[in-house]
Write a structure and sequence with these properties.
- This protein has 739 residues and is α/β, with parallel strands linked by helices.
- The protein has four domains: 158 residues, Rossmann fold; 141 residues, Beta-Lactamase (2-Layer Sandwich), CATH 3.30.450; 140 residues, Reverse transcriptase/Diguanylate cyclase domain (Alpha-Beta Plaits, 2-Layer Sandwich); 247 residues, TIM Barrel, CATH 3.20.20.
- 44% of the residues lie in helices and 19% in strands.
- The chain contains 25 helices and 26 strands.
- Strands 18-19-21-22-23-24-25-26 form an eight-stranded mixed beta barrel, surrounded by five helices. Strands 2-3-1-4-5-6 form a six-stranded mixed sheet, sandwiched between helices. Strands 12-13-11-16-17 form a five-stranded mixed sheet, with helices on both faces.
- α24 links the parallel β25 and β26.
- α6 runs antiparallel to α8 and α16 runs parallel beside α18.
- The longest helix has 34 residues.
- The radius of gyration is 36 Å and the shape is elongated.
- It binds ligand C2E and magnesium ion (MG) (2 copies).
- Ligand C2E binds next to β19, α15 and β23.
Length: 739
């Protein structure tokens, strides 16, 4: 049987999403306004405890405003009317098994609120959604309630609020950018000063009906930085001067004329023509055009209008430049940000040299931030960025999340070994010596025809692997990793649909008494037939359903369907048959399981003594206190219990003693090996009998096995020797033969 993956407890920075880290550390959206936090939980105590834990706290200098919802439906209404909701603290199981997850889908897919951060809090670790679910739903953090001490709650909330703020300001900026682009004239659509200036010369010459022959200079400090005044566009005899500082032109007359133009901040409408384009901060751009004819009054008038409108255009270009800078540059480190990295990745498909993308996440960065303060955290980021850029000179370094860097460069430079070596030496941060480690995920771009975002996703998958299993190390993305994650995501999506479309159904495998060969009961086994007719084995989809929180609903369906089938078998005259039903750990952990069972029995009107629940040995051993108490309740209903797959777990005799179970099922692996070695089968049978239990052997395929089991005193058998699991009509036919 495929073991379900262990559910990892996730650190603050382990659940890290590309989407979450889209941001730039930007100014606050509004001062002193409270952050709205919605607490969603059907347990009033959780609300009170959260209120108490968060009362009076400030996050990023602003108070919290706590809103409360006690069901998914109520939460939905609150989210809809609160545009500025920052964080949801969300319970999973409320009025429905997946009420919490449904709310998430609504928030993301219908309301399209991508900045809103969601922290999942769940009562039982058994409901942990797997990483894929978290990513699929864009859940930003996940905690079990018991994990959330006051301090951790505050820490999670702080990171969530920070991420929310970043994403909001990013959205704001994007809107601004779009507006400017839309409002631009044809000239301003030519991004960049140089193209703009080139355009101005072209238009100017067309206007005056002269050959393009002139140059345009930008005054010192017009753009970011403090470069000297330089030529930004030129044509005709001046073409070769582009980018040169004005002082190096060796054209004293031109230089002098331009300087005069700047100083006077006005144009001169006579040959040679000098035009001044002003900007808001008083630093202008000047054009020198070698017009070799007399300018007429009409020319002058046209030029005045042209200068005025071009000044507006220039202003827009500068603004656009600044916006581009903000959209593509990380404000703290002054290096490219995520947007820029995505563009580089998109542009890089023509790379000649093998190229690798690495994402690098500083381990325990939130702890550094929280214990040593944000200034120190910023200094750590600067130190890491410096080391990365000096050690990887041929690569582009970007900051793509609060503590996540992206590195894009030649594969021999961006490689696991070099990245790891980078962190071997201690860092000096604010006079302190600090050992820092980082986990990284790498993707080789070479043979991958993928978009920038897809490549980033792959790198994230690898990074996540590194953080979960190889902290402090580098892990390369492999197709398998992605495939596995994608496949499971598809499977999960398919499973949801299958459940809704009723493509999940039960088959029944007969069990019979070895003493007389007569049918004693059947075991209900779940089947999933996909739309294409293919079966997905239960060993594959049941663990998935457990992790996605679908198993309780699925299990309830199985209980009802199997009891109803038992009722139909009884109606057909098979009054002695029992129905064995497998139950999963998630079902047993759900409060009210016995009530669900009672309801299924009552609805089908079947005698409880003819229903047998199968629980596996490992389930019982995992949670002995809970399960043994539950078995007492189940026994009180009159339902019997079998321990399934016995012998594969590690439970001791003392575990078995504490369980009120009436039957042991020997796992089929031991039946399989009986012809070589029957010692385990012998032991299980002896053990069961000594505890007053009956024994069923699973997976009996040969007559020899059946005889040997009978000789050892095993009462009941099940297996292909007698029958495969059957659908109802075939089952009725089989039973008629074996009554
Ligand atoms: P299980 O409860 O131990 O079920 C017995 C499995 O052995 C079934 O596989 C059955 O088809 C298979 N089997 C029976 N006789 C033979 C045989 O002679 N030879 C061989 N090689 N195999 C035989 P299946 O149906 O694939 O189920 C696998 C497991 O999935 C089950 O193991 C059970 O743990 C789980 N499962 C199935 N249905 C349900 C369900 O409704 N709820 C829960 N919680 N688990 C289920
Ligand atoms: Mg079973
Ligand atoms: Mg079994």
């Amino acid at each position: 049987m495929i073991q379900s993956e262990p559910i990892h407890s996730l650190d603050d920075d382990e659940v890290l999403l590309i989407e979450e880290d889209l941001g730039l550390a930007a100014p606050a959206i509004g001062a002193e306004k409270p952050w709205k936090v919605l607490i969603v939980d059907d347990d009033a105590d959780v609300h009170n405890a959260t209120d108490l834990a968060l009362s009076g706290l400030l996050v990023e200098g602003r108070p919290l405003l706590l809103l409360h919802a006690f069901s998914g439906a109520q939460a939905r209404e609150i989210v809809e009317v609160n545009e500025d909701l920052a964080v949801i603290l969300l319970d999973v199981v409320m009025e429905a098994e997946d009420a919490g997850l449904r709310l998430v889908v609504h928030v993301r897919d219908v309301l399209r609120r991508s900045a809103l951060r969601i922290i999942l809090r769940t009562g039982q670790p058994g409901y942990a959604p797997e990483l894929d679910t978290i990513r699929n739903y864009d859940i930003n953090d996940y905690k079990t309630k018991s994990e959330l001490t006051r301090v951790r709650l505050f820490t999670s909330l702080t990171s969530a609020v920070r991420a929310y703020r970043q994403m909001r300001s990013h959205e704001e900026m994007r809107r601004g950018l779009e507006t400017v682009v839309q409002a631009s004239t044809a000239l301003t659509k030519l991004h960049g000063m140089q193209l703009f200036a080139q355009g101005v010369i072209g238009q100017l010459c067309a206007l005056l009906n002269v050959e393009p022959d002139g140059l345009i200079c930008a005054q010192a400090g017009l753009e970011e930085g403090s470069e000297p005044a330089r030529v930004i566009a030129a044509s005709g005899q001046f073409s070769h001067l582009i980018q040169q500082p004005l002082s190096e032109l060796n054209l004293p007359a031109v230089q002098q004329a331009l300087e005069q133009c700047w100083n006077e901040r006005s144009s001169r409408y006579e040959a040679p023509l000098l035009l001044y384009f002003s900007t808001e901060d008083g630093r202008g751009m000047a054009a020198y055009v070698d017009v070799r004819r007399e300018l007429e009054p009409l020319d002058r008038h046209l030029l005045e209008v042209f200068c005025a409108s071009t000044s507006v255009g220039l202003q827009n270009v500068l603004l656009y430049g600044r916006l581009v800078d903000q959209a593509y540059v990380d404000p703290l480190l002054r290096i490219p940000n995520l947007n820029r990295l995505i563009e580089l990745l998109a542009a890089g498909s023509s790379h000649v040299r093998p190229t690798t993308l690495a994402l690098l996440d500083i381990d325990e960065f939130s702890a550094i931030n929280d214990t040593l303060g944000h200034d120190f955290g910023d200094a750590v980021l600067r130190a890491v960025a410096e080391r990365l850029s000096s050690a990887l000179p041929q690569s582009t370094l970007a900051r793509i999340g609060s503590d996540v860097f992206g590195v894009l460069g030649p594969s021999d430079e961006v490689c696991a070994e070099r990245l790891q070596r980078l962190f071997a030496d201690v860092f000096a941060v604010q006079q302190q010596r600090l050992r820092i480690s980082a986990s990284s995920g790498l993707v080789q771009l070479a043979d991958r025809q993928r978009t920038g975002t897809e490549l980033l996703k792959d790198a994230h998958v690898a990074l996540k692997q590194a953080k979960l299993h190889k902290r402090g190390n580098a892990v390369y993305f492999s197709e398998l990793m992605g495939q596995d994650a994608r496949e499971r995501m598809h499977l999960l999506a398919g499973l949801r649909d299958a459940f809704d479309a009723q493509h999940l159904f039960l088959v029944y495998q007969p069990k019979l008494l070895l003493a007389n060969g007569r049918a004693s009961g059947v075991e209900a086994l779940l089947r999933w037939r996909r739309a294409d007719g293919q079966f997905v084995p239960p060993d594959r989809f049941i663990p998935l359903a457990e992790k996605a929180g679908l198993m309780v609903a699925l299990g309830t369906y199985v209980l009802h369907a199997a009891c109803n089938q038992l009722a139909r078998l009884r109606a057909a005259g098979h009054l002695e048959l029992s129905m064995a039903i497998n139950v999963s750990q998630a079902q047993l952990r759900e409060p009210g399981f016995t009530q669900v069972l009672r309801q299924a029995l009552a609805d089908a009107a079947v005698p409880p003594a003819q229903v047998e629940l199968e629980i596996t040995e490992s389930m019982a051993a995992d949670d002995l206190t809970l399960i043994s108490a539950l078995l007492v309740e189940i026994a009180a209903l009159g339902v019997t219990v079998a321990i399934d797959d016995f012998g594969t777990g590690f439970s001791s005799l003392s575990v078995l003693r504490r369980l009120q179970a009436q039957r042991l099922k020997i796992d089929r692996s031991f039946v399989d090996e009986m012809h070589k070695d029957d010692s385990i089968a012998r032991m299980v049978i002896g053990l069961g009998h000594s505890l007053g239990m009956s024994i069923t052997a699973e997976g009996v395929e040969t007559e020899q096995q059946a005889q040997a089991l009978k000789a050892l005193g095993c009462e009941e058998a099940q297996g292909w020797l007698y029958s495969r699991p059957l659908e109802e009509p075939a089952l009725l036919a089989w039973l008629a033969q074996h009554a």
